[in-house]
């Protein structure tokens, strides 16, 4: 679609209120989803909860292929299909909900910078550990990724995905890094986040923003996902304020909310 | 018919035949002028030798079967007939460029007075033939490279390779064909292929990579084919505006299926037959030899033709099919049936009948379609005997229905569901026959029984294809 047509369609979409049956699609939770996808999906779910928008989570084996950009998660709202946190934030903003309205320009630029840091460091490190580390790839990533498919398609798809990720790592210059260096990078990223967070409840004032959703998504998933070893989780655990940050958001937006919906 | 040369005989008593096939060079005898006139049908002859000249890589054992009948000829006319049949058989092997028959009297020490030698002069096809075409389609161009190796190992095996490289898609196919020596109709072939297709009526893009093996054999008057096929199918949306039902079908799946086809074809031609009938029944069972998809699919095709007065032909056809998903997964959009268009129910847009979602047609699990046609020569018969013979005027009545069945209910409910909301159309047009392979149609159609959601093409509709309702 041309730019003008896209703008027109998004204007039309913005006029519609948030429907009851908005759905978020991700790969199968038990058997298929990997760390990086789970983190991205949790970030989007947290963001939507923070905005107070209800969404159903639907797990499909082919979620990655259904997505218009090839990445999960994506949401199906009315007639629109939007994937990845960035475009989803824009889409929600067009509908009139925004978490970062209260920020001034400097803070907004800072928020964008930190979101880029998380995407470039944490997400890339997750992908590296999943697909470029042979042991993890063989034990966890390939079996999980290919679990919904039958032989020989499962092997073909798993290796195809592995080659694709390794090519991407090559392109951004991460293929020369060792696993230790990647863990070091994760540690440095967590240190930067920890310093910015300090003793505040959220990254900016007392209100959560999309940065909080993104950081929570990644850190919580790292802490709760079983990999071949615990090194990644240990790196995050060494920053206590990040730990309590995750715990707080989990309590506020997930446990309390679920308890409320159970009671009512 | 091919040239048949024959020399006259001297009338003498006959003896038993000698069987022998030699693949050596032999000189032709000089033609002699005879003043006497003989009545050839009454002359008994014996075919003593049959030679096949010009063989290179072809192995002789497969050829003995084709020419064996010639030895059974009893008189000269019989010899000519059987040699002609043997020539046809040799040509259908697909390994010779041309075959000439020479009938001569036997010469030499063991020659019988009424003995004949039949020589087949053959020219083998080249070891490898290549072809290169460029094709221009809907907003895309492609370059097609074809490579054919006939008679690879000497027993009429054929290896073909086709590669198409286009601006949008790349596809290729490799095929190996081997007939059984002596029974050409019994053959098997192995195919490897990658094919991509774009289906704008469903906003769907499909890439198939597959391997298949098939066995064909005749039983009495029917032809049967057994096939195993394994296909890796990749479905995707053709446009960002594809409906969500089509988007849900995106992804990869593996189909491994066994299928059986039975064909009885007594028509005199595949395109615009004048008489005869066709019955084709096909069933496919997927899922029991591996793969993700599991279903049972049946479809059939019937066509009857009859020549009426004044060179006109009345033709009726009936198609039908049913798809039964086995297991708990619903059927895939790539397996379902589609209906509508210039090659099936005319008057409707291509495959634009039946269940749809936001303008994308999803296909159905059961369908039937019928057609009644009257073909007549062009009025006033312009170009009679030549170009005009390729055209026909054509009056038609088409009907059909496509829907999804609820398999819990009984057959009575299924039949009533297929009988409600019948789409039909009628009209007239002109048909052009292209060789014996394809046909072009230009029709004026009036669609009726249109249901909400169907897309029609009333008025003039153009169609080109191989298989028409």
Automatic annotation (TrEMBL), chain A:
<comment type="function">
    <text>Involved in transport of proteins into the mitochondrion.</text>
</comment>
<feature type="domain" description="Metaxin glutathione S-transferase">
    <location>
        <begin position="187"/>
        <end position="249"/>
    </location>
</feature>
<keyword id="KW-0653">Protein transport</keyword>
<dbReference type="InterPro" id="IPR050931">
    <property type="entry name" value="Mito_Protein_Transport_Metaxin"/>
</dbReference>
<keyword id="KW-0007">Acetylation</keyword>
<keyword id="KW-0472">Membrane</keyword>
<dbReference type="GO" id="GO:0015031">
    <property type="term" value="P:protein transport"/>
</dbReference>
<dbReference type="InterPro" id="IPR033468">
    <property type="entry name" value="Metaxin_GST"/>
</dbReference>
<keyword id="KW-1000">Mitochondrion outer membrane</keyword>
<keyword id="KW-0813">Transport</keyword>
<dbReference type="GO" id="GO:0001401">
    <property type="term" value="C:SAM complex"/>
</dbReference>
<comment type="similarity">
    <text>Belongs to the metaxin family.</text>
</comment>
<dbReference type="GO" id="GO:0007005">
    <property type="term" value="P:mitochondrion organization"/>
</dbReference>
<dbReference type="InterPro" id="IPR019564">
    <property type="entry name" value="Sam37/metaxin_N"/>
</dbReference>
<dbReference type="Pfam" id="PF17171">
    <property type="entry name" value="GST_C_6"/>
</dbReference>
<dbReference type="InterPro" id="IPR036282">
    <property type="entry name" value="Glutathione-S-Trfase_C_sf"/>
</dbReference>
<feature type="domain" description="Mitochondrial outer membrane transport complex Sam37/metaxin N-terminal">
    <location>
        <begin position="41"/>
        <end position="162"/>
    </location>
</feature>
<dbReference type="Pfam" id="PF10568">
    <property type="entry name" value="Tom37"/>
</dbReference>
<keyword id="KW-0496">Mitochondrion</keyword>
<comment type="subunit">
    <text>Interacts with MTX1/metaxin-1. Associates with the mitochondrial contact site and cristae organizing system (MICOS) complex, composed of at least MICOS10/MIC10, CHCHD3/MIC19, CHCHD6/MIC25, APOOL/MIC27, IMMT/MIC60, APOO/MIC23/MIC26 and QIL1/MIC13. This complex was also known under the names MINOS or MitOS complex. The MICOS complex associates with mitochondrial outer membrane proteins SAMM50, MTX1 and MTX2 (together described as components of the mitochondrial outer membrane sorting assembly machinery (SAM) complex) and DNAJC11, mitochondrial inner membrane protein TMEM11 and with HSPA9.</text>
</comment>
<protein>
    <recommendedName>
        <fullName>Metaxin-2</fullName>
    </recommendedName>
</protein>
<dbReference type="InterPro" id="IPR040079">
    <property type="entry name" value="Glutathione_S-Trfase"/>
</dbReference>
TrEMBL record, chain B:
<keyword id="KW-0496">Mitochondrion</keyword>
<comment type="similarity">
    <text>Belongs to the SAM50/omp85 family.</text>
</comment>
<dbReference type="InterPro" id="IPR000184">
    <property type="entry name" value="Bac_surfAg_D15"/>
</dbReference>
<keyword id="KW-0472">Membrane</keyword>
<feature type="domain" description="POTRA">
    <location>
        <begin position="45"/>
        <end position="125"/>
    </location>
</feature>
<dbReference type="InterPro" id="IPR034746">
    <property type="entry name" value="POTRA"/>
</dbReference>
<protein>
    <submittedName>
        <fullName>Sorting and assembly machinery component 50 homolog A</fullName>
    </submittedName>
</protein>
<keyword id="KW-1000">Mitochondrion outer membrane</keyword>
<dbReference type="GO" id="GO:0005741">
    <property type="term" value="C:mitochondrial outer membrane"/>
</dbReference>
<keyword id="KW-1134">Transmembrane beta strand</keyword>
<keyword id="KW-0812">Transmembrane</keyword>
<dbReference type="GO" id="GO:0045040">
    <property type="term" value="P:protein insertion into mitochondrial outer membrane"/>
</dbReference>
<feature type="region of interest" description="Disordered">
    <location>
        <begin position="1"/>
        <end position="34"/>
    </location>
</feature>
<dbReference type="GO" id="GO:0033108">
    <property type="term" value="P:mitochondrial respiratory chain complex assembly"/>
</dbReference>
<dbReference type="Pfam" id="PF01103">
    <property type="entry name" value="Omp85"/>
</dbReference>
<dbReference type="InterPro" id="IPR039910">
    <property type="entry name" value="D15-like"/>
</dbReference>
<feature type="compositionally biased region" description="Acidic residues">
    <location>
        <begin position="24"/>
        <end position="33"/>
    </location>
</feature>
């Amino acid at each position: 679609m041309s730019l003008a047509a896209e703008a027109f369609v998004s204007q039309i979409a913005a006029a519609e209120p948030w429907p009851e049956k908005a759905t978020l699609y991700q790969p199968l939770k038990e058997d298929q989803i990997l760390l990086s996808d789970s983190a991205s999906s949790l970030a989007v779910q947290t963001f939507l909860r923070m905005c107070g928008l209800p969404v159903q989570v639907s797990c499909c084996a082919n979620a990655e292929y259904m997505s218009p950009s090839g990445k999960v998660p994506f949401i199906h709202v009315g007639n629109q299909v939007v994937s990845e946190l960035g475009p989803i934030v824009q889409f929600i903003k067009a509908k009139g909900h925004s978490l970062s309205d209260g920020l001034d320009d400097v803070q907004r630029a800072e928020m964008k910078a930190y979101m880029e840091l998380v995407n470039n460091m944490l997400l890339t490190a997750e992908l590296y550990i999943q697909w470029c580390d042979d042991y993890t790839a063989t034990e966890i990533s390939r079996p999980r990724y290919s679990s919904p498919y039958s032989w020989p398609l499962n092997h073909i798809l798993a290796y195809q995905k592995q080659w694709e990720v390794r090519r991407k790592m090559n392109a951004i210059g991460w293929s020369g890094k060792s696993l230790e260096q990647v863990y070091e990078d994760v540690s440095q990223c967590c240190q930067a986040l920890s310093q910015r967070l300090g003793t505040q409840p959220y990254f900016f004032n007392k209100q959560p923003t999309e940065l909080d959703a993104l950081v929570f998504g990644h850190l919580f998933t790292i802490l709760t996902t079983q990999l071949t070893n615990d090194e990644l989780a240990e790196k995050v655990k060494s920053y206590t304020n990040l730990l309590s940050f995750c715990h707080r958001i989990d309590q506020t937006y997930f446990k309390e909310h679920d308890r409320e919906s159970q009671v009512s | 018919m091919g040239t048949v040369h024959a020399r006259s005989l001297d009338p003498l008593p006959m003896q038993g035949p000698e069987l022998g096939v030699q693949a050596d060079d032999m000189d032709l005898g000089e033609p002699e002028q005879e003043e006497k006139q003989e009545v050839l049908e009454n002359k008994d002859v014996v075919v003593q030798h049959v030679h096949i000249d010009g063989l290179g890589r072809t192995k002789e054992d497969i050829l003995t079967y084709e020419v064996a009948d010639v030895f059974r000829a009893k008189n000269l006319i019989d010899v000519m007939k059987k040699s002609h049949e043997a020539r046809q058989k040799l040509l259908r092997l697909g390994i010779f460029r041309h075959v000439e028959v020479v009938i001569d009297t036997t010469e030499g020490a063991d020659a019988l007075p009424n003995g004949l030698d039949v020589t087949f002069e053959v020219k083998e096809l080249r070891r490898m033939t290549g072809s290169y075409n460029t094709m221009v389609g809907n907003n895309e161009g492609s370059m097609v490279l074809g490579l054919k190796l006939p008679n690879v190992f000497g027993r009429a095996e054929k290896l073909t390779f086709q590669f198409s490289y286009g601006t949008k898609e790349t596809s290729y196919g490799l095929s190996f064909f081997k007939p059984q020596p002596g029974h050409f109709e019994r053959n098997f072939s192995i195919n490897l292929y990658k094919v991509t297709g774009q289906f704008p009526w469903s906003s769907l893009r499909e890439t198939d990579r597959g391997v298949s093996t098939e066995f064909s054999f005749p039983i009495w008057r029917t032809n049967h084919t057994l096939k195993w096929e394994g296909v890796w199918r990749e479905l995707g949306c053709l446009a960002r505006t594809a409906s969500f039902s089509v988007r849900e079908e995106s992804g990869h799946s593996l189909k491994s299926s066994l299928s059986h086809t039975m064909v009885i074809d007594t028509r005199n031609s595949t395109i615009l037959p004048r008489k005869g009938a066709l019955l084709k029944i096909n069933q496919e069972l997927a899922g029991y030899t591996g793969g993700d998809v599991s279903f049972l699919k049946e479809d059939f095709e019937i066509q009857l033709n009859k020549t009426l007065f004044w060179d006109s032909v009345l033709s009726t056809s009936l198609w039908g099919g049913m798809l039964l998903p086995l297991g708990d997964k619903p059927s895939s959009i790539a397996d379902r049936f589609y209906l509508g268009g210039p090659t099936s129910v005319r008057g409707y847009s291509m495959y634009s009948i039946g269940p749809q979602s936001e303008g994308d047609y999803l296909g159905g699990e059961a369908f039937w379609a019928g057609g009644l046609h009257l073909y007549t020569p062009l009025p006033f018969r312009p170009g009679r005997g030549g170009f005009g013979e390729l055209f026909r005027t054509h009056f038609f009545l088409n009907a059909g229905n496509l829907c999804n069945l609820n398999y819990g209910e009984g057959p009575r409910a299924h039949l009533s569901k297929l009988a409600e909301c019948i789409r039909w159309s009628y009209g007239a047009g002109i048909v052009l026959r292209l060789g014996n392979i394809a046909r072009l149609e230009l029709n004026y159609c009036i669609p009726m029984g249109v249901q909400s959601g169907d897309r029609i093409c009333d008025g003039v509709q153009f169609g080109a294809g191989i298989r028409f309702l």
